[in-house]
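Support case: 5-phosphoarabinonic acid complex. Customer-provided input:
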Amino acid sequence: MIKLDYTNTSLKEDLSAYQKRVSEIHQQLLDKNCLGSDFVGWLDWPLNYDKEEFARIKETAKEIRERADVLIVCGIGGSYLGARSAIEMMKGLYPDDKLEIIFSGNTVSSTYLAQTLKHIEGKSVYVNVISKSGTTTETAVAFRLYEQYLEEKYGKQEAARRIIATTDKARGTLKNLADKKGYRTFVIPDDIGGRYSVFTAVGLLPIAAAGLDIDKLMAGSAKAREDFLSDDLNKNAAYQYAVLRRIEEKQGNTVEFFVSYEPSLTMTAEWWKQLYGESEGKEGKGVLPASVTFTTDLHSMGQFIQEGTKNFFETTLMIDKPMEDLIFPADEDNLDNMNYLAGKSIDWVNKMAFQGTVDAHFNTGGNDNIIIHLPDNSEFSYGYMIYFFFKACAMTVLLLDVNPFNQPGVEVYKKNMFKLLGKI
Ligand code: PA5
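Agent response - structure generated as follows:
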């Protein structure tokens, strides 16, 4: 499913030098005694997920699709990036769908919130509020606005049907509120952190509401779980990627650019940045995750990447088969001198740009390029890819002796903000 190509890298170490440490960490993950082991529920989730809840997710998604024009997904960080990345990657940026999905609750921009409230006027609205802690300010601020909007518009009873909360199974402000108001609830398991939660109701409800097949998505994640069960670095592409990142860092490449050639993968890059940044960036350690979308950004960041400071490597996610393709037409007058491409597929042009860019960046620019090939953007492939990145992330961060599953640094801004806001 995933082909990892690291032939365009100059490595000063062999991957096999890491085998012993990889095997030790692999065993710790299996035995659930690694750093942060309270949060490794995602490892076996593709097999253990709650099948009864899964059926309820599908029913609820069906109701949303039948009754709503707009679904507002209200959440931040791990409580929205997975769903948004999935929907954009699998449906593209202009999906042909009656249901519009808006991701909100991830900013306290007054302009954004006011414009969203105006945008939904006159439309049939459902809200899925997602927060594991139930107290995240950005989400809570937006949710109160949408909740009051729905109650005013539909009355309390109908609003209660249209609001669905995804949160802790028993505790927290959002769980209490949802129970008191009679909202439907879905569970974020205790042992799965936000950024590892795409395969739980956090991701699955919005993804199913978008009309995507979550059975296939879970099947993809289960296949990846099986494929990445080996600790053998010759066989496990997730562990190869994990080790490559550590070797690159040792060689002074402390920034990693996630590269894609599809605008619909921009949110996948954002999801990946959160997964790797929040898991790894602790104790003064870690590779800084950055992203670019080519060929668009070859006309902005391309200059720096080709000739600027050499402190980075690139990891390209290449979707081998595009969702759609077009044949470039011939033109009788050829005033734009573009007939040399007549009859060629646009995706072929994109792939030639990719090949030319890897050559320019590696052979001329001296930047290492790791390439991750994914066959297509189907639900199965998406599920497979997400699990690949989870497993690689856990391994690469544990290789640094860092806990991949907490995010203590995020609390610092919150403390300052709460003081300024006068929160008691
Ligand atoms: O990955 C994480 O744990 C975080 O990004 C959280 O998902 C994010 O802070 C939102 O938290 P919560 O779901 O508690 O509102």
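Residues 62 and 247 are 47 Å apart (CA to CA).

Case will auto-close in a few days if no follow-up is received.
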